[in-house]
Recover the amino acids of this structure.
């Protein structure tokens, strides 16, 4: 393979047919270019979609209730289902191995006032675990902790926008703000890179809110994350178990999604994954079809080259060249053209992606790029393609009868 | 060296079959210089191709240096050709993008001789045909006679048992023809077995034995007094 004579021959044929070599090489380079660009685009879409969901932990599950749509277990349809604190405890105790974080949610609205500034904000009363589930980024102070829950402390974690609105240039941390007339101490400020609206929110201990605003043990919904080691099937299987259990507990028909709904992020994620997988498949498919055209082009040129060199091959065989040596020569030439032109295509695609990829940042499309594995795969494909392109012509060359080749006197 | 018994060969031309060799019996001893003569279509080239293992016989026996040549695979035939035979063609058949020295070294390449040794040997044989100063020239920069001398050097480089020359002077003027024949005679003087296919009487008489072929059979096989080509050079 690293024989000087072989390479000398290859370079000679390529040199004497520069335009021909360039044109054929171009088709393969172009094919690889398109293949890489397609894969990068799909990758970009995937990045975009994933970015949309980045707000929340991707392993979260939400349990929500509503009004039953079906009569079940002696109850008529239209019954309101209400989650309570003991539902949370019940889930916690039923699935100790499956659950990573769990928190109840209690929604409320509040008119918040600090000095002269007032504003209306939504309040989510939660447990400490909620920070991990919602991936809340506390930039100052702290999040709600267990002590706040136990003490029913009047504390709040406010969004950056809330702090800006109410406190202007003052440091909000440790100050007291009035929620519907009751003083809450600001213990933390959070940001959210998802959107500004999320930063107009206030978190407070759930126990505090349950007592102040209704003195109940009712909760609006339960958010939890499952064991992060679970794969998709395990995750779906777990949310199904959870759903069955909760529906049984609240006497809701198993297929009644209105009464109680368990929403698993993994499912939505799965949908996106399969969507991008299909796109990727199409990308690879189209790329391959174009590549095949390139391969046929190279095969065509090799057939031509061999026809031109029939006599030379005959001479070589008369001088003692074994068929395998002829095959090697042709295959190596074919692989060489394919690989070089493919690499040029790859390099071009890669340079374009490296230059403009990071600048593309839209919700549905961001940072199109190719991974090393794609590059490695493309390289392997190229070499296989080169072999395929050269195989038939090589066999044809090996079968050249020296007598026929030499007979044209 | 060469022994042929009842060799037959026919070519299929569409539905017709053309019987080219109709039972050739023929023996060549070590160190002979044999001319195979015959008009066009007499089968002389076919015989040479079979002797050169470039083509297979339909029936009959062929023994080369004690080795039966029969049902060879392509690979085996290539090995035997490389080891036993050196070819000299009418149209020289040098590889046009290789220098004279590289052309001479080619059979050695297929013998897997190391590069350095190949170059040394190639130079040695180029010197023998008097073309050492032209070692780096491409075939296109050489005259016809020079090309044929390079081809002879190439045929000899692998040190074969037999040299097969198919109309070696066919493309050359008479002066260069004699030069080439002079070289062939000298190589023969050193004890090499050489077969020359020709249709020229004067060339044939520069050999030591003439075999006449007509319509696929040997009609005459005689020893002749060798005419030295040297005197015409």
């Amino acid at each position: 393979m690293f024989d000087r004579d072989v390479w000398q021959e290859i370079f000679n044929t390529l040199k004497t047919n520069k335009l021909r070599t360039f044109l054929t090489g171009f088709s393969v380079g172009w094919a690889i270019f398109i293949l890489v660009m397609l894969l990068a685009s799909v990758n970009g879409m995937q990045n975009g979609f994933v970015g949309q969901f980045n707000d929340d932990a991707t392993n979260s599950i939400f349990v929500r209730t509503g009004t039953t749509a079906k009569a079940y277990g002696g109850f008529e349809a239209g019954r309101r289902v209400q989650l309570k604190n003991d539902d949370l405890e019940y889930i916690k105790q039923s699935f100790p191995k499956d659950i990573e974080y769990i928190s109840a949610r209690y929604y409320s609205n509040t008119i918040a006032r600090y000095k002269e500034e007032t504003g209306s904000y939504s309040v989510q009363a939660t447990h400490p675990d909620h920070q991990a589930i919602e991936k809340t980024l506390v930039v100052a102070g702290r999040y709600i902790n267990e002590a706040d829950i136990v003490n029913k402390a009047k504390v709040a974690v406010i969004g950056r926008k809330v702090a800006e609105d109410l406190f202007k240039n003052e440091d909000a941390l440790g100050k007291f703000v009035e929620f519907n007339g009751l003083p809450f101490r600001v213990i933390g400020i959070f940001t959210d890179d998802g959107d500004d609206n999320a930063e107009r929110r206030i978190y407070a201990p759930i126990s505090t809110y349950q007592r102040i605003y209704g003195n109940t043990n009712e909760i609006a919904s339960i958010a939890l994350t499952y064991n992060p080691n679970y794969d998709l099937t395990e995750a779906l299987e777990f949310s199904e178990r959870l759903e069955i259990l909760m529906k049984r507990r609240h006497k809701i028909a198993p297929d009644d999604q209105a009464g109680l709904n368990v929403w698993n992020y993994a499912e939505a994620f799965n949908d996106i994954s399969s969507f991008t997988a299909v796109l990727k498949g199409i990308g690879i498919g189209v790329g391959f079809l174009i590549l095949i055209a390139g391969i046929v082009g190279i095969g065509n040129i090799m057939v031509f080259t061999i026809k031109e060199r029939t006599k030379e091959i005959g001479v070589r065989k008369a001088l003692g060249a074994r068929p395998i040596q002829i095959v090697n020569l042709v295959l190596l030439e074919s692989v060489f053209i394919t690989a070089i032109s493919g690499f040029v295509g790859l390099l071009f695609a890669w340079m374009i992606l490296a230059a403009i990829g990071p600048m593309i940042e839209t919700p549905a499309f961001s940072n199109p790029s190719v991974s090393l594995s794609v590059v490695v795969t493309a390289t392997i494909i190229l070499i296989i393609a080169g072999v395929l392109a050269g195989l038939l012509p090589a066999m044809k060359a090996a079968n050249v009868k020296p007598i026929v080749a030499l007979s044209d006197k | 060296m060469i022994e042929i018994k009842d060799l037959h060969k026919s070519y299929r031309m569409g539905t017709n079959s053309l019987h080219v060799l109709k039972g050739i019996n023929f023996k060549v001893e070590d160190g002979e210089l044999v001319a195979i003569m015959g008009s066009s279509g007499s089968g002389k080239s076919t015989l040479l191709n079979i002797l050169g293992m470039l083509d297979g016989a339909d029936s009959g026996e062929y023994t080369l240096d004690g080795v039966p040549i029969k049902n060879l695979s392509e690979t085996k035939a290539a090995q035997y050709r490389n080891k036993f035979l050196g070819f000299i063609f009418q149209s020289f058949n040098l590889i046009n993008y290789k220098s004279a020295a590289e052309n001479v070294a080619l059979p050695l390449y297929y013998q897997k001789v190391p590069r350095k040794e190949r170059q040394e040997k190639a130079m040695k044989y180029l010197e023998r045909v008097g073309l050492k100063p032209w070692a780096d020239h491409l075939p296109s920069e050489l005259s016809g006679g020079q090309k044929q001398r390079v081809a002879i050097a190439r045929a000899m480089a692998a040190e074969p048992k037999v040299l097969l020359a198919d109309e070696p002077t066919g493309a050359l003027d008479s002066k260069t023809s004699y030069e080439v024949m002079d070289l062939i005679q000298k190589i023969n003087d050193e004890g090499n077995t050489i077969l020359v296919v020709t249709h020229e009487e004067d060339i044939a008489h520069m050999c030591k034995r003439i075999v006449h072929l007509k319509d696929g059979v040997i009609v005459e096989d005689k020893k002749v007094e060798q005419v030295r080509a040297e005197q015409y050079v």
Remarks:
- Chain A has two domains: 4-52+271-406, 60-266.
- Residues 265-308 of chain A form the longest helix (44 residues).
